[in-house]
């Protein structure tokens, strides 16, 4: 038996096309063009590639893309001043400050400086609180995209046992809130959880967001479960040539896909959904800030 492979890349492409349709309509009917500002501090090559992809897809969706690349030596005060300018800029509907920030910058302070109405990452405490108390907030992109993929295989999640492995503010905690709102029985597991394999084996929906390559083994997966692999780990791949790397998830995919009912691959699973959901949230911010109706694209 082999589980259904959930094609996140294809789903994300469809979502981006629907978003582009809405953006075109906003322009036609209201003369409005959504804008997304991305702030990148430092020279990390992986981050630069990622920011370039985001900018490309933003423009392809018909939105304006504003890129701010700052040196790693940028002070916290300078960064806060830039955020204040973007908050005040009417052409900017969404602000994303790429994480991680250099150690001399207090990342939480910077995130809290972003106008919650423009916080397309959903990391501001106001949005975290709104998501936790039943909606209206901007939802973090990776959990939002993960939930869309889960619901693409099963519409009604009520009563299912969901296990989220990982408790980060960016993925684990908001993912747990979204699954709770879908009436799942949610367990959040982490590095101190006792009998992690046993806890995972109870899951009808298993979300892996730990950042450890291929940690979740095939025999940790309940037969028929929906498995969402959020991990993006670069590991050495000598079989591809000297010094080469490849991407693997937090799930041992070959083993797990033989047991799961449906599973996301890495790459091509959750990753592409994260960027599509960033555009989703930018469209949502644009509509809400202007008092225009927003329906999920
Ligand atoms: N404020 C903030 N918000 C973020 O959302 C954020 C961030 N900081 N910092 C960095 C991480 C990383 N991240 C990724 C999103 C998509 C892919 C993605 O599309 N991955 C492709 C593979 C790309 C490849 O081949 O390298 C895939 O999984 O198929 C990867 C990584 C968002 N992040």
Automatic annotation (TrEMBL):
<comment type="function">
    <text>Catalyzes the oxidation of 5,10-methylenetetrahydrofolate to 5,10-methenyltetrahydrofolate and then the hydrolysis of 5,10-methenyltetrahydrofolate to 10-formyltetrahydrofolate.</text>
</comment>
<dbReference type="InterPro" id="IPR046346">
    <property type="entry name" value="Aminoacid_DH-like_N_sf"/>
</dbReference>
<comment type="pathway">
    <text>One-carbon metabolism; tetrahydrofolate interconversion.</text>
</comment>
<feature type="binding site">
    <location>
        <begin position="166"/>
        <end position="168"/>
    </location>
    <ligand>
        <name>NADP(+)</name>
    </ligand>
</feature>
<protein>
    <recommendedName>
        <fullName>Bifunctional protein FolD</fullName>
        <ecNumber>1.5.1.5</ecNumber>
        <ecNumber>3.5.4.9</ecNumber>
    </recommendedName>
</protein>
<dbReference type="InterPro" id="IPR036291">
    <property type="entry name" value="NAD(P)-bd_dom_sf"/>
</dbReference>
<keyword id="KW-0028">Amino-acid biosynthesis</keyword>
<feature type="binding site">
    <location>
        <position position="232"/>
    </location>
    <ligand>
        <name>NADP(+)</name>
    </ligand>
</feature>
<dbReference type="InterPro" id="IPR020867">
    <property type="entry name" value="THF_DH/CycHdrlase_CS"/>
</dbReference>
<feature type="domain" description="Tetrahydrofolate dehydrogenase/cyclohydrolase catalytic">
    <location>
        <begin position="6"/>
        <end position="121"/>
    </location>
</feature>
<comment type="subunit">
    <text>Homodimer.</text>
</comment>
<keyword id="KW-0554">One-carbon metabolism</keyword>
<dbReference type="GO" id="GO:0004477">
    <property type="term" value="F:methenyltetrahydrofolate cyclohydrolase activity"/>
</dbReference>
<keyword id="KW-0368">Histidine biosynthesis</keyword>
<keyword id="KW-0658">Purine biosynthesis</keyword>
<keyword id="KW-0511">Multifunctional enzyme</keyword>
<dbReference type="InterPro" id="IPR000672">
    <property type="entry name" value="THF_DH/CycHdrlase"/>
</dbReference>
<dbReference type="GO" id="GO:0004488">
    <property type="term" value="F:methylenetetrahydrofolate dehydrogenase (NADP+) activity"/>
</dbReference>
<keyword id="KW-0378">Hydrolase</keyword>
<dbReference type="InterPro" id="IPR020631">
    <property type="entry name" value="THF_DH/CycHdrlase_NAD-bd_dom"/>
</dbReference>
<dbReference type="InterPro" id="IPR020630">
    <property type="entry name" value="THF_DH/CycHdrlase_cat_dom"/>
</dbReference>
<keyword id="KW-0486">Methionine biosynthesis</keyword>
<feature type="domain" description="Tetrahydrofolate dehydrogenase/cyclohydrolase NAD(P)-binding">
    <location>
        <begin position="140"/>
        <end position="288"/>
    </location>
</feature>
<keyword id="KW-0560">Oxidoreductase</keyword>
<comment type="similarity">
    <text>Belongs to the tetrahydrofolate dehydrogenase/cyclohydrolase family.</text>
</comment>
<keyword id="KW-0521">NADP</keyword>
<dbReference type="Pfam" id="PF02882">
    <property type="entry name" value="THF_DHG_CYH_C"/>
</dbReference>
<dbReference type="Pfam" id="PF00763">
    <property type="entry name" value="THF_DHG_CYH"/>
</dbReference>
């Amino acid at each position: 038996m082999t589980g259904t492979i959930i094609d996140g890349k294809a789903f994300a492409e469809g979502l981006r096309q629907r978003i582009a349709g809405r953006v075109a309509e906003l322009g036609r009917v209201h003369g409005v063009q959504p804008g997304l500002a991305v702030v990148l501090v430092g020279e990390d090559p992986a981050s630069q590639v990622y920011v370039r992809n985001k900018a490309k897809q933003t423009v392809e969706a018909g939105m304006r893309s504003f890129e701010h690349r700052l040196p790693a030596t940028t002070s916290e005060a300078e960064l806060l001043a830039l955020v204040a300018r973007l908050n005040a800029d009417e052409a900017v509907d969404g602000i994303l400050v790429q994480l991680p920030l250099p150690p001399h910058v207090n990342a939480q302070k910077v995130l809290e400086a972003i106008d919650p109405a423009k916080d397309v990452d959903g990391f501001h405490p106001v949005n975290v609180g709104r998501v936790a108390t039943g909606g209206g907030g901007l939802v973090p992109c990776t959990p939002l995209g993960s939930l869309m993929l889960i619901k693409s295989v099963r519409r009604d999640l009520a009563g299912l046992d969901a296990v989220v492995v990982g408790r980060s503010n960016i993925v684990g905690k908001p993912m747990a809130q979204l699954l709770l709102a879908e009436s799942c029985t949610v367990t959040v597991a982490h590095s101190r959880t006792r009998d992690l394999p046993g806890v995972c084996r109870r899951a009808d929906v298993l979300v892996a967001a730990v950042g450890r390559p291929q940690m979740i083994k095939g025999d940790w997966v309940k037969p028929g479960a929906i498995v969402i692999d959020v991990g993006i780990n670069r590991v050495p791949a000598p079989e591809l040539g000297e010094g080469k790397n490849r991407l693997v998830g937090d799930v041992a995919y070959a083993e797990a896909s033989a047991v799961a009912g449906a599973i996301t691959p890495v790459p091509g699973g959750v990753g592409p959904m994260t960027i599509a959901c960033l555009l989703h949230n930018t469209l949502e911010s644009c509509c809400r800030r202007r008092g225009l109706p927003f329906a999920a694209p």
